[in-house]
Amino acid sequence: MTAADRDLVAALRIEVAAIYPPRACDRLAEQAGLADALAVRDPVIARLSVRMERSAQTAGEAAAAGAPGPFHFAESPEHCRMAYLRGRFLARGSLSLAGGRTHLEFVVDDHEAPVLAGWLTLAGLPASWRIRRGRGVVTWKGGETVGLFLRRIGANATLLELEARQVARALRGDLNRVLNAESANLERSVAAAGRQLAAIDQLEADGRLAEQSRVVRVVAEARRATPEATLTELSDRLAVHRSTVQRALDRMERIARHAEGSAAPLA
Length: 267
Prior knowledge:
Layout: H1 3-17, H2 24-33, H3 43-59, H4 61-65, H5 78-92, E1 93-96, E2 103-108, H6 112-122, E3 128-132, E4 135-140, H7 143-152, H8 157-205, H9 214-225, H10 231-238, H11 242-256
Helix pairs in contact: 1-8, 2-3, 2-5, 8-11, 9-11, 10-11
């Protein structure tokens, strides 16, 4: 990733970490998602984890809920699910924007990967998973799904910047494709005009141009006068069909390639 992309990812994580759920159940859910956050060694995430633990203890939430246990995703309401996934993203998620492609993955214990993937599917965010070097990896590679997930866990301001960059990249890509196509068309047009002018010069030098029909001679004169003109511009100038101009130019090239101009005159 570029430095700008890394800064954007860092800003996104800071924005998500700054969210303080108003519901006690959401704070407990996010705390469950942050279960192994200290292993990440990210000071922002570590402070959030400690803050969630203190909040639960201060409010007596831990006592009310009993000893912390596994999070029951399927039985939890939507807001608790998103709070849990927010914590899991902060603890074990990573976002990559390399090469204009959006890639988000969770690196978890091998036994957690299929469970987390199943929960994400249950939440309408299907993801793939695999085992990589003994660790479970749950992955999204589509920018649309990643954007939906980040929006649902609360990354709004930074996500707008991310989407703006993606739109800008897409526009630049489209512009480059258009420019490349135009450049290729221009190169072909220049090469064709060069061949046509060479053919006209050859036919005039050996007297064969004068033997051609009026249409061919008029097209030859117009091509000489405006070497850069397109076929459409030549047809507009001469008030004839584009196909007539094309046939006249093709005829001159064809005749010039032969020692004798034996083809019948173009009407």
